[in-house]
Design brief:
Order of helices and strands: EHEHEHHEEEHEEEHEHEE
Structural class: alpha/beta
CATH architecture: Alpha-Beta Complex
Protein name: TET-Associated Glycosyltransferase domain-containing protein
Largest sheet: 5 strands, mixed
Distance between the termini: 49 Å
InterPro entries: TAGT
CATH class: Alpha Beta
Number of domains: 1
Number of helices: 7
Helix content: 25-40%
Number of strands: 12
Pfam families: TAGT
Amino acid sequence: MKNKDFAVFILTHGRPNKVHTYNSLRKCGYTGRIFIIIDNEDTQAEVYKQTYGEQVIVFDKKAVSDTFDEGDNFEDRRAIVYARNACFDIANNLGIKYFMQCDDDYTAFSYKFNSKGKYTHKAIKDLDVIFDAMLDYYIAIDIKSIAMSQNGDFIGGENGSFGKSRKLFRKCMNTFICSTDRPFQFIGRINEDVNTYTNVQSRGNVFLTLSNIAINQLTTQSNSGGMTELYLDSGTYIKSFYTVIYSPSCCRILPMGETHRRLHHRITWKNAVPVIINESYKK
C-alpha cells in the first residue's frame, strides 16, 4: 500500500472460523493492515483472539447502542450497525485516518470492466493498487464514503443498470471507505447501510459506489453467525421497512424476484437527494 495511513476493518460476530474476507484480501494481493472488529457480547471472542491475536479489537456494544438511533424499542443487538459506528472511535484510538469497513463473508474481489470499458469478470490480483486508487479519489473529493459494487448489482450482466458502463452510483454498501475527518452515524438496527446512505445524503452529503470493481459474497443467510439468525427471525419484510421509517419520501416496498418473490426496498432517487439546478434558472 502506498497510503500507510489506512487499514481494513473486518466486522464479524460469532464465527471466528468463517472470516472468509481475511483470506480473500490476502489472496487478492492486499498487504496492508487488517483488524478484526468484534463486540464484548461475542461468546467466541477468545477463539478470535487465539486465531488473530493482536489484530482483534473489542468494543463495548451496549455503550455504542446508546449513541445513535436504532429505529425501534427492541433489545436485540445481533446486528452489524454497532460495529459500523464503533469503527470511527477505533480508528482514532489506533491513530488511523482512513479505513475500509468489510463484512466477513467476501470470497473474491473482481474487475467488472476491462481497460476498454467492456463488461467482464476477472479476479483482482493486486488489491493494494485498487485500494490506493480508491483512496486517492476519496481524498480528492468531498464525500462521506465510497464503496465497491457487489456482484449482485450485476444481475442482467452487460444489459443491467450496473453492467452497461463504468459509472458512479449514489448507493453505498458493504465496503465503506471512511475517514475520521468525515464522521457520520449509521442509523437503524437493520438495513443500516440503506438507512444511512438515504438519510445522510438527503441533507446534502454524498456516498458513492464504483461500478468497475466488485466484491463477491456468500449467499445471503447461508453463513451461520453474524446477522444470519436476525434476518431469519425477522425476514426482509421488517428489514426493508426500517428505511421507510427513516426516508418515507423516497423509499417504498415492492415484491422482488421471479419465482421466489420477497419484499424489498426501492429508492426513488429524484426524491432522495438534493440536485444541482442548471444556472439558467438563476435570478
